Amino acid sequence: MSRYRIAVVVGSLRKDSFNRRLATALARLGPPEFEFHQLRIDDLPLYNQDNDGHPAESVLRLKSEIAASQGVLFVTAEYNRSIPGVLKNAIDNASRPYGQSAWAGKPAGVIGASIGAIGTAMAQQHLRNVLAYLDMPTLGQPEAFVHAKDGLFNADGSIGDASKAFLQAWMDRYVAWVKRHSV
Ligand code: FNR
Q1: Tell me, what's the pLDDT at 164?
Q2: What is the pLDDT of residues 61-119, one digit of tens each?
Q3: Which CATH number does the domain housing residue 159 bear?
Q4: 72 with 7: CB under 8 angstroms?
Q5: Would you tell me the crossing angle of helices 161-181 and 18-27 to the nearest 10 degrees?
Q6: Hey, which residues does 6 pair with through a beta bridge?
Q7: Residue 58 pLDDT more than 80?
Q8: Quick one: which atom of ligand 1 is closest to the CA of 14?
Q9: What is the average pLDDT across 51-68?
Q10: Domain enclosing residue 21, as ranges
Q11: pLDDT computed for residue 133 by the predictor
């Protein structure tokens, strides 16, 4: 049986981030052959093209973790109707030098939670635009705009009953997508 390593990028640095909790809970919905690894992005430098010839250790680490993965899962917060700067910074850092992007060809899933009623819909749409340019085949349906409210998580961190079936179905589609598009 093939094994699949998934690089998980959480678009929030907040300690009690709903999106980090969502990423952790989603990993439990994956099949046994899928391993989910949350990538560290809080120690990356602000992207500066002057550094393309001598990238920081943290950038090299990020790129090698993506390269070693068969898929990427973005779990993002929405800031001011777009993706948080920390996520865009991670994407930019791993996309360069030109022609040496770590993202190219990696199948991706996009999901996110917010306390607002639209559940990161705008941020996800902006992110899809970026991922299209980066040549990442991205799961289109089902869309998952998660409203962070009481009951989303059980006390043990798993997904609560109201959202469990929907998010399990989302994960099943994501797993099939990665299997179809990983090289
Ligand atoms: C927000 N929040 C927010 N929510 C939303 O639904 N749409 C938005 O555009 C924004 N904008 C926004 C900007 C900034 C700077 C902050 C700090 C927050 C609220 C946001 O959904 C909430 O803080 C979540 O808890 C963020 O996700 P994490 O950090 O819990 O994963």
Answers
A1: 97
A2: 999 999 999 999 999 999 999 999 999 999 999 999 999 999 999 999 999 999 999 99
A3: 3.40.50.360
A4: yes
A5: 70
A6: 36, 71
A7: yes
A8: 29
A9: 98
A10: 4-181
A11: 98
How crowded is the C-beta side of 105, counted as CA atoms within 13 Å? 10
- Residue 137 alpha carbon to ligand 1 centre in Å: 27
Q: How far apart are CA 99 and CA 10, in angstroms?
A: 25
Total residues found in the chain within this entry? 183
20 CA closest ligand 1 atom index: 31
Residue 11 CA: nearest ligand 1 atom is: 31
The domain total for the chain is 1
Give the pair of three-digit tokens for residue 49: 């093209």
DSSP annotation of 74: E
User: How far, in Å, from the CA of 120 to the mean position of ligand 1?
Assistant: 8
Minimal-distance CA residue to ligand 1 atom 17: 79
Whether 24 lines ligand 1, by a CB cut-off of 6 Å, is no
Q: What is the pLDDT of residue 183?
A: 76
Task: Tell me whether strands 34-38 and 4-11 are parallel, antiparallel or unpaired.
Answer: parallel
Mean pLDDT of the residues in the chain: 97
Q: For position 17, what pLDDT does the model report? A: 98
Pair 11, 43: CB distance under 8 Å: no
